[in-house]
Structure formats: C-alpha cells, structure tokens
Amino acid sequence: MSFLTTLRDLLRYNLQFSIGATLTLVIVILAGMSFFSPYDPLDTYLVPLDMPPLWQYPFGTTSRGQDAFWLLTFALRNTLLFGITVAVLSRVFSLTVGLLAGYVGGRTDRVLMALNDTFIVIPLFPILVLFYFVLRDHMNWALLALAMASLGWAYDARLIRSVMMSLKTREFTRTAMFSGMNGPEIMVKQHLPFVLPIVFSTALNNINWSIGLEVTLSVLGFTNIDTPTVGTMLFWANQHSALISGVWWWYTIPTVFIMLTFIGLFLLAVSLNDYIDPRSRIARMGGGSA
Question: How far apart are CA 283 and CA 186, in angstroms?
C-alpha cells in the first residue's frame, strides 16, 4: 500500500488522525514562518515593552522588547527540531538493540535486555539535571538532545524485540534463510518493513516525551537559556514576573501552543497505532463505508 493511499485512508476514516494532522500542520506552519521573521530571536528591546495583543503585535510583546509572535515561531521551530532529533537518535538505538536481541536471541538477547532494563530503571530527570550541572559551561542544544536520546530508547527497544521474536518464527523467514540470505539481510530486507510502522508511531510519542522534558528543564533554567524554545520563552517570562505584572500573553500563548503540539502528536500516535492493528483498521473502514 502506497503512502498516499495510507494517508487518504487515515484522513477519511480516522477522525483522531485528521484532528492531529491539522493541529500539527498549524504548528509546523507557524514554525516555518520563523524563516521570514524580520527580527533576530536573540535581539532584545526592538519593540515597545509589554504591549498586549494588537493588530500590529498579534501575540503582544514581552518585557524584553521582543515581538511575541515572531519569538514564538522560533521557539516552536527549535522545540520541534529538538524533539525530532531526539526521536531519530533514540530510534537508531532502539532499532539496533531490538533487532539484534529479537533475531539473534540467546546470550546476545540476555546481555542486550539486561542493558535495556538498566536504562529503563534510570531516573531520567535527576540524571539530566546532573548532566546540566556537570557540563554547564558547555551545555548546548545538541548535547542535551544526545543525552536525552541516550536515555529514551529502552522501552521501544523492548517492543521491537518482541515483534522480532515473532517475525523470526514466520514461514517467510525460513524461506529467506533457505534462499541463502544471511542474518543482516533478513533483518533489513524481510523484517524491517514490518517494524518501521511501529518505529514511526513510537517516534511520535518520543517526540512528545522529549519536548515535555525539554520544556520542564528550560523553565527551571537547566538548559541553554539563550536558545529560543517554548521552555526558554516561559523561563524568561518567569524571570520578568510576567504573571504578576499582568503580561499574561507571555505565559498563556506559548502554553496554549505547546499543549496543541502535545495533543496533535498524541492523536497522530494513537491513530497510527490503530491503523497498524488490522482489526482496528478494518473496523474503522467498515464503519466509515457503511
């Protein structure tokens, strides 16, 4: 089934996917508008301070003299890029461990799953806070993404392993072995296409997880606060006591848009999980055509 056919079916029969795709598209469009911004996101005191939302400043201005609309476009772009980077890196880790453990089995499986379970029980937030204090002078966007990806792959690796353990007992796997294909070829050519839909759906959840953790760390000041993200935008609002001084838009608007991001990605992940399950897909399509 082609990508366009799959997309058409999801939009036609799955309301959750349609809503999630719409919300995510709005966020992506806003993030893309950052490339047309008349301001540098790091420049301050460029516009009047603390202006409420008006026609000229649709999201108001901040106490640092920044146009909140254009600042939010940069914040959403960096936040999305951060989440996608963490998800891609952690998918590499989870795919490698899950494929090897599930297909090879035996001692390899036991060793990799022991390592996997170790990462599952690690308390992520305290480790990331400690990571910030150790590398405070060198903390940047890339280091935090790498650290978070290194800690966020274990649950999905176990899921991929369970799928691989089922796939290697199928008849087509035996046929591939008898035809002369080696282990890596079987994993990549025969098994990976079955695993990729699961990888993609879990990637959306991982993006949500990493964005939420980054926002939390940024609000507390445990990241590079000079990089504009939704979390650092809220950090500066807190530093300038925006809520107390009545600059409600500095808090409210970023919070609303990050919640829309969470909801959109969550609905996409849930709808893709339903689509992966043949019984759920057939039930939805049958109900939609009745």
Answer: 32
Which residues, 6 or more positions from 149, have their beta carbon under 8 angstroms from its beta carbon? 85, 86, 87, 88, 89, 90, 93, 210
Q: 152 near 210, Cβ under 8 Å?
A: yes
Angle between helices 68-104 and 248-276 (to 10 degrees): 30
Q: Tell which phi-psi region holds residue 65, choosing left (phi > 0), alpha (psi between -120 and 50) or beta.
A: left
State how far the Cα of 103 lies from the Cα of 264, in Å rounded to an integer: 34
Is residue 190 within 8 Å of 208, Cβ to Cβ?
Answer: no
Question: Tokens for 132?
Answer: 């910030």
Amino acid at 236: W
Mean pLDDT by 10 residues, the chain (290 residues): 68 84 95 94 92 92 94 96 94 91 88 90 86 81 88 89 86 83 82 83 90 92 90 94 90 95 93 68 48
**Which residue carries 């392993």 as its tokens?**
161
**pLDDT number for residue 283:** 53
The residue ranges of every structural domain in the chain are 3-255+275-289
The CATH number that domain 3-255+275-289 falls under is 1.10.3720.10
Q: How many helices (H) and strands (E) does the chain have?
A: 14, 0
Can you state the percent helix, strand and coil of the chain, rounding each to 5?
Answer: 80, 0, 20
Provide the pLDDT for residue 80. Answer: 95
pTM: 0.87
φ/ψ of 61, rounded to 5, equals -125, 165
Amino acid at 131: F
Instruction: Specify whether the CB–CB gap between 54 and 9 falls below 8 A.
Output: no
Q: Are 275 and 6 in contact (CB under 8 A)?
A: yes
Q: Please give the backbone phi and psi of residue 67, each rounded to the nearest 5 degrees, phi first.
A: -75, 115
Task: Please name which of 226, 267, 257 lies closest in space to residue 30, comparing C-alpha atoms.
Answer: 257
Nearest C-alpha neighbor of 215 from the set 235, 242, 237:
235
